[in-house]
Amino acid sequence: MGKPRVTPTVHLNGSDGRTLAEGYRRAADSIRRAIEIHGESAPHGRDYYPQGDDAYYAAAREHGERFDRLRAVMAELVDLWERVDAQVRP
């Protein structure tokens, strides 16, 4: 999975574990939706050809890099959700 994450410890004096886990889950779901929407805005060559031969390829590369960053954040949130959820499961 990547670098270790500092995970909240669920205890009586801290945040409610279920609420905390649900927050991570909802944030991950929001990013999953952002990834879907981002896919709908894929670069098209006709939007870039006036800028020269390399513009479309640069835009496509940048588009993919944004996907990578979104997926990385989503993976971190899912990991945190699962770690916190494991502490509150009966």
Quick rundown:
The protein is mostly helical.
Q: What's the layout of helices and strands?
A:
Blueprint: H1 17-39, H2 55-88
Helix pairs in contact: 1-2
Question: Could you explain how this protein is built, in words?
Answer:
This protein is 63% helix and 0% strand. The chain is mainly alpha-helical. It has a domain at 54-90. The relative contact order is 0.21. The model has no long low-confidence stretch (mean pLDDT 94).
Mean pLDDT: 94
Number of helices: 2
N-C termini distance: 26 Å
Main sheet, how many strands, which sense, barrel? none
Compute the gyration radius: what is it? Answer: 19 Å
**Shape descriptor:** elongated
Tags for this model:
90 residues; mainly alpha; 2 helices; 63% helix; elongated
